[in-house]
Each structure stands twice: as structure tokens, then as C-alpha cells.
């Protein structure tokens, strides 16, 4: 494989266009996988690795979307107001 993907898992929208950094990384990985498979053949180990990277990135996106669905009202409140008494965590 010709490239390495160092992906930050930041899901905050970048540029205001609705595309996240992770989605950009997925699109770049797909382009890289297609290029790698054209160069080294569809049955090559490099091609398989390139598509494995795409699959892992897509799985991470799915996991992040699932995590957002299961936030409680308290979780959302604490994200907005981390210093609120209800949100403070004490080690006993």
C-alpha cells in the first residue's frame, strides 16, 4: 500500500459543509483502495489491506453514530454544563 492513514476521530463538522473529518478520511481511503487495487491487482494483499482500512473507518463511523443515540438527558446536560453539581464526579 502506498499511503498511511492517520485519522483523528473528531466528528465535529469541518468547514460547515456537513462533512466530518472521519467521512473525509473514508472517502480518501476509498480512493486509495481503488488506486492500490488498480496498481497491484484485485487479488493482491495490498488491495485487501486497503479495503480493510476502509471497512475499519466505516465501522468507527457507525460506532460513533450509535454512541450518540444512547446519550441520556443527563449526559447531554453535562456536555453543555460540565461544572454543574450534577455532573461533578468525585473519587471516594
Give a structural overview.
The chain has one domain (21-87). It is built from 3 helices and no strands. Helix 1 runs antiparallel to helix 2. 58% of the residues lie in helices and 0% in strands. It starts with 20 loop residues before the first helix and ends in a 12-residue tail after the last helix. The longest helix has 25 residues, at 45-69. The radius of gyration is 19 Å and the shape is elongated.
Please render the helix and strand layout as text.
Layout: H1 21-40, H2 45-69, H3 73-80
Helix pairs in contact: 1-2
Question: Main attributes?
Answer:
58% helix; mainly alpha; 92 residues; elongated; disordered N terminus
Helix/strand/pairing category:
mainly alpha
Task: Point out poorly predicted stretches.
Answer: 1-15
Largest sheet: none
Helix content: 55-70%
Q: What's the pLDDT, averaged over the residues?
A: 82
Q: What is the alpha-carbon Rg in Å?
A: 19 Å
Number of helical elements = 3
Content of β-strand: under 5%
Number of beta-strand segments: 0
SSE pattern: HHH
Coarse shape: elongated
The rounded distance between the terminal residues' Cα atoms is: 50 Å
Amino acid at each position: 500500500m502506498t499511503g498511511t492513514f492517520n485519522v483523528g476521530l473528531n466528528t465535529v463538522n469541518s468547514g460547515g459543509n456537513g462533512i466530518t473529518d472521519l467521512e473525509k478520511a473514508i472517502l480518501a481511503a476509498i480512493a486509495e483502495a481503488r488506486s492500490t487495487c488498480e496498481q497491484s491487482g484485485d487479488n493482491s494483499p495490498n488491495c485487501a489491506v486497503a479495503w480493510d482500512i476502509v471497512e475499519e473507518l466505516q465501522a468507527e463511523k457507525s460506532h460513533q453514530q450509535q454512541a450518540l443515540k444512547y446519550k441520556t438527558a443527563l449526559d447531554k446536560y453535562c456536555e453543555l454544563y460540565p461544572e454543574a453539581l450534577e455532573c461533578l464526579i468525585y473519587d471516594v
